């Protein structure tokens, strides 16, 4: 049998010949071009015919034999008999339409959101100053973690995560946030998003209602929707989440997601009376509160307000933290702090629901915290970000006038610049993007019927040398004719 066509040009440049031969033989068998029972040449003869090494033919034959497409015995190598009917090469056009779409829940993850770029643009929210990262100290911790690594660090993480990291975190949270917690209450996660996904799946049932802040954290809505929860938007006012009696009566929650220390994106701080009232009402409604302690580490004026977790005895609160802003997002480590009543069961369920790794990074982070590097880094960055905010405020007032309305400066890495109704924040954000800025429209975080009109301006990565030019381009975007709405 002549099989010279198996390696006829054109040949893929990036694919070895043994892979080409394998794929073309497999396609010929599945399409029926080589019928069941068809004998194939001996490997040595086919190699001579195709002018290739015999090992190349042996690779293709052995792979297809392992897959059941070929049979080899004393009678030689031939196409397997069970490949009885020709199978046409598949294409998306031939597949049923139902197989070509994602689930209804997946639509939540397809909502428009500003693209995340490899190189963060000026004013991109939530982007820390990578250049100020303590590389030398972190590298030393990683090297020690690798030197002392055992099977526990190289395998999947155990219940709750690395024990050394959980101990270090318990000490840090007790000192820095005043939380009286122990290591057994902490579960290590792969960041905030993974923590929210776990809460949605382990604290709720399919179809339960979760409250989300409006405006609020878009990725949280995605996590809850993908878990099959019904998201109900609750407005945020000057004191934080502001549910009405109608919200409690018509949309009773199983889960309440809040960012009380520095509401994202408005930057508003939840008042103490509002915190106490929310805890009591959640108890009455058998609801869990997820407290994302967003940006509490970078407080500007005085100590951070007390966390809801531990504010009252036996509070139905789960505390969420992450190292994405304090260290770097690519570390992909965060944590949950749970009430004693559910901590052990939650940790066991987490191990079954997800397989966590990063044992080396977890051990290195524990070392980093225990040696005081983390506290030192936070102190330095707190001062650096405070100085940047002062400089940004001054530059914005020079560019837009002293009456420019700014908010959200008590903590965190961003400010909100409110815009008059005559200027559309979405249009400004589009113009700014064309000029290389990472501005976000406040309206993109908001769900109807509530409306907000402003710009979210991140300054974590805004070095002094780029501040003046970034503000100049922002002023051009705001004053662009395309940014001005037609008056109603």
Description of the structure:
This protein is of the alpha/beta class and 488 residues long. The protein folds into three domains: 4-79, Arc Repressor Mutant, subunit A; 133-371, Type I PLP-dependent aspartate aminotransferase-like (Major domain) (Aspartate Aminotransferase, domain 2, 3-Layer(aba) Sandwich); 376-483, Aspartate Aminotransferase, domain 1 (Alpha-Beta Complex). It contains 15 helices and 15 strands. Strands 4-11-10-9-8-5-6-7 form an eight-stranded mixed beta sheet, sandwiched between helices.
Question: Topology, please?
Answer:
Layout: H1 17-31, E1 39-40, H2 43-50, H3 54-66, E2 70-73, E3 76-79, H4 135-147, H5 151-154, H6 163-176, E4 186-189, H7 192-202, E5 209-214, H8 218-226, E6 230-237, E7 240-241, H9 245-250, E8 255-258, H10 272-284, E9 288-292, E10 317-322, E11 334-337, H11 340-353, H12 359-370, H13 373-400, E12 406-407, E13 414-418, H14 425-434, E14 440-441, E15 454-458, H15 464-478
Parallel strand pairs: 5-6, 5-8, 8-9, 9-10
Antiparallel strand pairs: 1-3, 2-3, 4-11, 6-7, 10-11, 12-13, 13-15, 14-15
Strand/helix succession: HEHHEEHHHEHEHEEHEHEEEHHHEEHEEH
Strand content: 5-15%
User: Order of strands in the sheet with the most strands?
Assistant: 4-11-10-9-8-5-6-7
Number of domain units = 3
**Structural category:** alpha/beta
Query: What is the average of the pLDDT values?
Result: 86
| Cα radius of gyration in angstroms | 29 Å
Low-pLDDT regions = none
CATH topology heading of the largest domain: Aspartate Aminotransferase, domain 2
DSSP E strands, number: 15
What about the largest sheet?
Answer: 8 strands, mixed
Note the quaternary state here: single chain
Helix percentage range: 25-40%
Gross geometry:
globular
User: Any idea what the CATH superfamily of the largest domain is called?
Assistant: Type I PLP-dependent aspartate aminotransferase-like (Major domain)
Q: Give the number of helices.
A: 15
């Amino acid at each position: 049998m002549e099989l010279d066509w198996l390696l006829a040009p054109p040949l893929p440049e990036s694919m070895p010949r043994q892979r080409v031969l394998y794929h073309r033989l497999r396609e010929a068998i599945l399409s029926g071009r080589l019928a069941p029972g068809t004998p194939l040449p001996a490997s040595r003869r086919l190699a001579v015919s195709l002018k290739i090494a015999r090992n190349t033919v042996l690779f293709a034959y052995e792979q297809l034999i392992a897959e059941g497409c070929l049979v080899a015995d004393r009678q030689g190598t031939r196409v397997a008999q069970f490949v009885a009917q020709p199978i046409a090469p598949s294409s998306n056009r031939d597949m049923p339409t139902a197989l070509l779409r994602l689930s209804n829940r997946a639509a939540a993850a397809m909502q428009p959101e500003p693209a995340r770029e490899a190189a963060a643009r000026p004013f991109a929210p939530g982007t820390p100053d990578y250049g100020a990262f303590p590389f030398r100290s972190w590298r030393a911790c990683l090297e020690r973690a690798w030197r002392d690594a055992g099977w526990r660090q190289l395998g999947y993480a155990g219940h709750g995560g690395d024990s050394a990291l959980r101990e270090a975190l318990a000490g840090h949270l007790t000192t820095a946030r005043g939380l009286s917690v122990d290591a057994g209450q902490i579960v290590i996660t792969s960041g905030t998003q993974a923590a929210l996904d776990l809460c949605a799946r382990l604290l709720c049932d399919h179809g339960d209602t979760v409250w989300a802040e409006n405006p609020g954290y878009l990725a949280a809505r995605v996590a809850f929707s993908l878990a099959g929860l019904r998201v109900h938007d609750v407005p945020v006012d000057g004191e934080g989440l502001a549910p009405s009696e109608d919200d409690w009566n018509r949309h009773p929650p199983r889960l309440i997601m809040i960012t009380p220390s520095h509401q994202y994106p408005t930057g508003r701080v939840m008042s103490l009376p509002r915190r106490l009232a929310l805890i009591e009402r959640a108890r009455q409604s058998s609801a869990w509160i997820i407290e994302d302690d967003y940006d509490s580490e970078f407080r500007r004026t005085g100590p951070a307000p007390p966390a809801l977790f531990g504010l009252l005895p036996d509070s139905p609160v789960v505390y969420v933290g992450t190292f994405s802003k304090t260290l770097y997002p690519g570390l992909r480590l965060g944590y949950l702090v749970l009430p004693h009543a559910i901590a052990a069961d939650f940790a066991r369920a987490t191990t079954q629901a997800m397989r966590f790794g990063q044992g080396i990074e977890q051990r290195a982070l524990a070392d980093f915290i225990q040696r005081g590097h983390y506290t030192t880094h936070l102190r330095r960055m707190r001062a650096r970000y405070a100085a940047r905010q002062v400089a940004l405020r001054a530059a914005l007032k020079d560019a837009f006038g002293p009456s420019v309305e700014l908010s959200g400066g008590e903590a965190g890495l961003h400010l909100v610049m409110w815009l008059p109704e005559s200027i559309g924040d979405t249009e400004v954000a589009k113009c700014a993007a064309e000029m290389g800025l990472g501005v976000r429209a406040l309206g993109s975080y908001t769900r109807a019927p509530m409306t907000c009109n402003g710009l979210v301006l991140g300054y974590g990565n805004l070095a002094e040398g780029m501040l003046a030019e970034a503000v100049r381009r922002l002023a051009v975007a705001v004053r662009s004719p395309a940014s001005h709405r037609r008056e109603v």
